[in-house]
Design goal:
Structural class: alpha+beta
Number of strands: 15
Shape: elongated
Strand content: 15-25%
Oligomer: single chain
Length: 410
C-alpha cells in the first residue's frame, strides 16, 4: 500500500524566496488553465487539451513579457500544476456523472496566494535527490535542510513541498510499502484477540473489556489562548505587518492543537492494532452530529481521523477491520441475554436489564455489542474493512510529519 511520509523542512531565507516564487508560478499556471477551460465552456468550444495548454501557457508563456518569470522555476513544477488542474476537472466531471464516491465535488476554483496551504510537486524528471549530508536538493532552490525523524523504507519517485498556514515547510514523500515487511513490523497479537470500540465525548473511547480512554479535548483546553490570540488579531489594522504577525500567531496556535490531536490518535490507534487481531468500530454520522449544538466537541474529538487510522493500519499490518452500521441498537440491547430494552436518554449512564437483571454501564455495554456484531459480520463473510473513498496515500504514524458492512442473514 501507499503511505505518505512527511518531514519538516528548514529553508534558508534565500530558499524561502525561491519556494515562494515556485508556489506563485504554479498557482498562476493552474489559474490560467482553469480560466482557459472556463472561457472555452462559455464560448461553447471543446476544452483545450493538456498538450495545447502546456504549449500555450508554459512554453510560449515564458516568452511573454508579462510571464517571463515562469522560467525562474523548474518546468516540472509548472507541468504538475497543469496535471492538478486536469485531476480537478476529472473529479468534477466524475462527480456530475455519479461515478465518484463521497460528497459531490464542485467546479475547480481559482487558487489564491492567501490560501492556507501552498504546495508544489517534483517528480523524477526534475532530478531532485537526497544528498549524502541528508539535505533535500531541489532544482533552482538548492539544498534544503531536513529534519529526518525516520529513514525512508524505499526510494520515493516524487516529493511534494508544502507550506501550511502557520508558515511551516514540509517535504512529503509517497512510499510504496512492502507487504512482507509490514507483516513483521508489529509483533503478533494473541490468537483470536479482538476489541470493540465505542466512541463518545465524555470518554473518547470505551473498550469492550471496560477500559475507558478519557477525551483529551485539545481545542477546549487551548480555547483561552486561542481567544486571546484571535482578539489581538481583530484589533490589528487590515493590511499591516502587525496583522500578518498576529494572523501567524493564531495559525500556529491552531496548528499546535491539530498536531496534538493527530499525535494522540496515532498513538492510540497503533496500540489498539498492535494488541488485537480484529478491530470493530461503529460507523458514526459525524456530519450530522456536527450540525448540532455539540459541533465543536464533535470536531475536537477527531473521530473520523481516528477511524481512518485504524482502517489503514489494520490493512497494512494484516489485521481485520470491521465497521458496523450506525443504526445497530448497541445502546439498547443487553450484551448478556440479547434483550432489546428500547432507546434511553443520554443522561442514563447505567441501566438494569429487566430479563436477566444484569447491570450495564451504557458505554461498556455498547462496546460489547459492537464487538459481537462485528465478529458476526466477519464470520458470515460480509464486506469488512472498506477502503477509504478519499483515495491517495495515507499519512504514516506519528513522528513523520464507507460503506458499513452488510449484516448477516438470520
Amino acid at each position: 500500500m501507499q503511505l505518505r511520509y512527511a518531514f519538516r523542512l528548514y529553508p534558508e531565507p534565500g530558499q524561502r524566496g525561491a519556494l515562494a516564487r515556485a508556489f506563485g508560478c504554479a498557482r498562476v499556471v493552474y489559474n490560467d488553465a482553469v480560466r482557459a477551460r472556463r472561457d472555452a465552456h462559455a464560448a461553447k468550444e471543446p476544452y483545450p487539451s493538456s498538450k495545447s495548454l502546456s504549449r500555450s501557457l508554459i512554453t510560449r508563456g515564458k516568452l511573454r513579457r508579462d510571464r517571463y518569470w515562469l522560467g525562474e522555476v523548474s518546468a516540472v513544477v509548472l507541468q504538475q500544476a497543469l496535471r492538478d488542474a486536469d485531476a480537478a476537472y476529472g473529479n468534477f466531471f466524475a462527480s456530475l456523472k455519479g461515478e465518484r464516491h463521497g460528497p459531490r465535488v464542485g467546479e475547480p476554483r481559482f487558487r489564491s496566494r492567501k490560501d492556507s496551504r501552498q504546495a508544489i510537486r517534483f517528480t523524477a524528471n526534475a532530478r531532485w535527490k537526497i544528498t549524502g549530508t541528508g539535505r533535500l536538493l531541489l532544482p533552482k532552490i538548492g539544498e534544503v535542510r531536513v529534519k529526518w525523524s525516520r529513514p525512508l523504507p524505499t526510494v520515493p519517485s516524487s516529493v511534494t513541498v508544502v507550506k501550511d498556514s502557520s508558515g511551516r515547510y514540509f517535504a512529503s514523500f509517497v512510499i510504496e510499502t512492502d507487504p512482507d515487511t509490514d507483516a513483521t513490523a508489529l509483533p503478533d497479537a494473541a490468537p483470536g484477540s479482538s476489541v470493540g470500540i465505542d466512541l463518545g465525548l465524555t470518554h473518547f473511547a470505551v473498550l469492550d473489556d471496560g477500559a475507558k480512554i478519557d477525551s483529551p479535548r485539545f481545542l477546549r483546553r487551548a480555547e483561552k489562548k486561542l481567544k486571546k490570540a484571535q482578539r489581538e488579531l481583530s484589533r490589528k489594522e487590515k493590511g499591516s505587518r502587525n496583522r500578518a504577525s498576529a494572523r501567524l500567531k493564531v495559525a500556529r496556535a491552531h496548528a499546535k492543537v491539530a498536531d496534538a490531536r493527530k499525535e494522540f490518535c496515532h498513538q492510540l490507534s497503533t496500540r489498539i492494532v498492535r494488541e488485537n487481531q480484529v478491530v470493530v468500530v461503529e460507523d458514526l454520522a459525524v456530519n450530522g452530529l456536527a450540525r448540532t449544538r455539540l459541533a465543536k466537541s464533535v470536531y475536537d474529538a477527531g473521530w473520523s481521523m481516528f477511524v481512518d487510522m485504524l482502517r489503514y493500519k489494520c490493512e497494512r499490518y494484516g489485521r481485520l477491520f470491521v465497521q458496523i452500521g450506525r443504526f445497530e441498537p448497541t445502546s439498547q440491547t443487553c450484551s448478556d441475554c440479547g434483550h432489546r430494552d428500547g432507546p434511553k436518554p443520554l443522561d442514563v449512564r447505567t441501566w438494569t436489564c429487566p430479563v436477566c437483571h444484569a447491570v450495564h454501564d451504557r458505554d461498556v455495554n455498547a462496546a460489547r455489542n459492537i464487538k459481537a456484531a462485528g465478529l458476526a459480520a466477519s464470520a458470515c463473510g460480509a464486506q469488512v474493512s472498506p477502503r477509504s473513498s478519499r483515495g491517495g496515500a495515507q499519512r504514516d504514524e506519528a513522528g513523520s510529519h464507507g460503506i458499513p458492512p452488510t449484516a448477516c442473514a438470520a
